[in-house]
Write a structure and sequence with these properties.
18% strand, globular, 5-stranded mixed beta sheet, 3 domains, 15 strands
Length: 493
């Protein structure tokens, strides 16, 4: 099932619903304690078979149904006649979602799930959308108790209301300052014939498409927001070391502001008016990096502690949720080994620098991020990989012309046959003209790529390389276009 589309509405809530929120919180907190005590969801239980059923295949009991049955007698004792029994179903479903999320994040017993803010999440059997106009005018009837209802006339101002409101109504979230209406599109998602995959990094994201095209999108402005917030946080903690409570209040205030700015900027990059991402992946099956365990794997060892601050500011999860929501035809791909083996021949890679990969068999030095996007594309292409089998190469799933185009776009420089397998450094494997003093933009340590491409075609979609070249052209004495001279025999394929 697809992720629901959420339409917010802020306004005055009837007093009757406001009085219901504390009771709903008490019900959910009771179910949370009961579910953790009974270990609901850790073991699978089954409905008993009917006397005339000889199939021998009992039906499993969903965890939320099991939690509801355990608390039904308690709910009837305390809330019979005050609320409809369907409130217990909604609260049980909400409580199991919180328990599953808590368990997936490690299950820290010192921080068990508990509702502290007033909220009520009602399933679609507790409310009805009686009227929904194209201009956003709605009439919602919320069931309070048996044959008792609360009717609300609201007007939603949302650009996607006319489209999303045609889908199935999902949950209704009630807050003290408004409502959150969820609509789910149950139409099956068909896999597109074309495929695209991306490699997400701190300062850029690189896409590779099955027609041989690649695209890089700059994320340095997102990192700049987090770097400024880090500097501000360290300044507050340093100057307010004598008053830790006040320092924590100031940090929490700036933290929420920073998170909102980052999410807003990611939304604009994915589906904004000037977005380059959705037009590039439109009509394609999207391969999403499965980075759910990367942070834990990096910080698991002692040497990962120095990366703690940087990994905590990595927004790959927020980016994934945004792009998957707006592009449902997607699935995650296994990322382990994408930077260790070449997608063109599965030969081991070496890394002369942090952002370069060297393949002795291809006789080329590749941009590491661009090469990893090709690896993701190969792993996303059908047929599906089977456990225990070697990973397929680009030549097995893509036409030869596309493979050569991806190889040319991802490569930075060719290497000579004498450099293969010798462990030569990246600088020794490159033409000396790239390091001449007359080319000041050849080596830029602050660049994410670090090396200027050999020809103009390879500079396409490279944000930082193009900026470096244009900056050198704008200097006095650089009226003509900069061209790096390379011997022809070094660029032959």
């Amino acid at each position: 099932m697809n992720e629901p589309d959420i339409i917010p509405w802020n306004g005055r809530i009837p007093d009757k619903l406001l009085r219901m929120l504390p009771d709903y919180m008490d019900i959910v907190n009771h179910l949370l304690a009961l579910g953790l005590y009974k270990k609901v969801g850790l073991e699978v239980h089954y409905y008993p078979l009917a006397p005339d059923d000889d199939s021998g295949k009992p039906k499993p009991i969903p965890p939320d149904r099991e939690l509801r049955d355990l608390a039904k007698a308690w709910f009837i004792k305390h809330y019979k006649g005050r609320y409809k029994v369907h409130y217990l179903d909604s609260a049980a479903s909400f409580a199991m979602q919180l328990i599953k999320s808590w368990r997936s994040n490690g299950g820290d017993i010192t921080a068990v799930p508990h509702l502290r803010k007033p909220i009520a999440r009602l399933n679609n059997d507790l409310y009805t959308v009686q009227r929904a106009e194209a201009d956003g005018t709605m009439r919602i009837r919320i069931t309070w108790a048996p044959r008792e209802y609360v009717v609300m006339d609201i007007k939603v101002n949302h650009r996607h209301f006319a489209e999303w409101s045609q889908n199935r109504a999902g949950a209704l979230v009630i807050l003290p300052d408004g409502l959150r209406l969820c609509f789910t599109d149950d139409a099956p998602v068909k896999r597109s014939a074309r495929t695209v995959a991306y490699d997400f990094n701190f300062k850029r994201v690189v896409f590779a498409r099955s027609d041989g095209q690649q695209k890089e999108v700059d994320l340095s402005d997102v990192m700049a927001i987090q770097q400024r917030h880090k500097a501000k946080r360290e300044s507050i903690q340093r100057t307010m070391s004598h008053n830790p409570a006040k320092a924590e209040r100031l940090v929490a205030k700036t933290r929420g502001r920073e998170q909102d700015r980052v999410k807003d900027l990611l939304h604009k990059k994915v589906h904004g008016q000037n977005s380059e991402i959705l037009p590039f992946i439109e009509g394609c099956h999207l391969g999403v990096e499965d980075l759910s365990k990367v942070t834990k794997d990096v910080l698991k060892d002692d040497h990962g502690r120095k990366f703690n601050a940087k990994m905590s500011s990595w927004v790959h999860g927020a980016f994934e949720s945004i792009i998957v929501h707006h592009h449902p035809d997607s699935e995650p791909y296994y990322t382990r080994g994408t930077s260790r083996f070449c997608p063109f021949d599965n030969s081991p890679l070496t890394h002369p620098s942090w952002k370069t990969s060297r393949c002795p068999k291809c006789e080329r030095v590749f941009d590491r991020d661009w090469l990893e996007s090709v690896s993701g594309l190969v792993r996303t292409m059908p047929p599906r990989h089977k456990k225990g089998q070697p990973w397929k190469t680009a030549g097995q799933v893509l036409p030869e012309t596309v493979v050569e185009q991806l190889r040319q776009q991802s490569s930075i420089l060719p290497i000579t046959p004498t450099d293969v397998g010798t462990g030569t450094s990246l600088k020794a494997a490159m033409p000396s003209s790239l390091f001449a003093p007359s080319v000041p933009s050849a080596v830029q340590p602050q660049s994410d790529i670090g090396i200027v491409r050999c020809d103009d075609a390879m500079l396409e979609n490279r944000n930082d390389a193009v900026a470096n070249q244009q900056g050198a052209m704008n200097k006095p004495g650089h009226d003509a276009k900069i061209v790096v001279e390379v011997r022809h025999e070094r660029i032959s394929t």
